[in-house]
From TrEMBL:
Coiled coil: none annotated. Keywords: Membrane, Transmembrane, Transmembrane helix. Residues 137-147 have a biased composition (Low complexity). The chain crosses the membrane at residues 6-26, 33-59, 65-87, 99-121. The keyword Nucleotide-binding does not apply. This is Uncharacterized protein. The keyword Transmembrane applies. InterPro entries: CBO0543-like (IPR048147). NCBIfam families: CBO0543_fam. Residues 135-155 are annotated as: Disordered.
Length: 155
């Protein structure tokens, strides 16, 4: 096994939850949620690919799909599921919509930080981390290619 078991488990769980949840929600309104699923999958994958091309981050370890330069199956299942769930369970009153979507974004960011800290699924590159101001201790690289940078976490 090339990767730790939890990286396989994280990828498989994300794909299964995204696919099952999306199917459950699309069933409610095929035309509306089906179109939203396709659009959010295309936009999410496109943005992810654009960020990879821009050199902001890389996916060095893709336990399930090794053909593409990004986790394509995760991008076309879990990202649209998050959008569909966000739309389906959005509060009716406008005053609660902003905190609701803030919470969704914060959960996504915390999930990325956890994945970054405890797995090798993705890494920020020096183009995305090094800059002004430089973190204490500099922006040293962790790979021989010099394209990956250490994540600076205070504390």
């Amino acid at each position: 096994m090339k990767f730790p078991w939890y990286e396989y488990a994280a990828n498989i769980a994300t794909i299964v939850i995204g696919a099952a949840g999306s199917l459950f929600l699309i069933k409610r309104d095929l035309k509306r949620y089906g179109l939203l699923f396709l659009l959010s999958g295309a936009v999410g994958t496109g943005l992810c690919y654009a960020f990879v091309l821009a050199g902001l981050y890389i996916f060095p370890n893709r336990p399930i799909q090794t053909i593409w330069s990004l986790p394509f199956l995760v991008m076309v299942t879990f990202v649209p599921f998050t959008v569909l769930a966000g739309v389906q369970f959005s509060p009716q009153r406008w005053i609660w919509k902003i905190p609701y979507y803030w919470a969704i974004v914060h959960i996504a960011v915390v999930s990325e930080v956890v994945l970054l800290a405890y797995t090798g699924i993705f890494r920020f590159t020096s183009a995305g981390i090094c800059g002004t101001p430089t973190p204490p201790g500099g922006c040293s690289t962790s790979s021989s290619s010099g394209s990956e940078a250490k994540l600076f976490l205070p504390g």
